[in-house]
């Protein structure tokens, strides 16, 4: 599995630990030989993307853009999609949950990968429960706290 990362400088001192958490999540997800891009942005950037693509005029923690939605590009069968992570929102959430930014990045990568795989907690309670179980399994296998699962937060 290949991971292309953009914007790591925004992670500051948490960069190495956050990248280790993200890689552990990718490995634990067991998606096979696929490629994913992860881009770290500031709140203003993710807010603009959230407004444009989801009609929600607010910053968010993670956005997922599946390569399997819309028109397919031949030759990119291994590319699963893009994850965009709002670092400022992630840092606030990490503080509120009492864990590190690295753990939060791992949680957000996990959550985003579930969306890229077709799970969507916003489709109803059954799908939300299914996504929660998948996220908790991936987090546990990655050595991250299952209690930090994004799908399991209120």
Short description:
The chain is of the alpha/beta class. Helix content is 46%, strand content 16%. It has a single domain (2-152), classed as Collagenase (Catalytic Domain), CATH 3.40.390.
Secondary structure blueprint with pairings:
Layout: E1 2-6, H1 15-29, E2 35-41, H2 43-54, E3 62-66, E4 79-86, H3 87-97, H4 101-116, H5 125-141
Parallel strand pairs: 1-2, 2-4
Antiparallel strand pairs: 3-4
Helix pairs in contact: 1-4, 1-5, 3-4, 4-5
How would you describe this structure to a colleague?
It is a single chain. By secondary structure, the chain is α/β, with parallel strands linked by helices. It has a single domain (about 1-150), classed as Collagenase (Catalytic Domain) (3-Layer(aba) Sandwich), CATH 3.40.390.30. It is about 45% helix and about 15% strand. The chain has five helices and four strands. The chain has a four-stranded mixed beta sheet with strand order 1-2-4-3, with helices on both faces. α4 packs across α5. The protein is globular and about 30 Å long. The N and C termini lie far apart (about 30 Å).
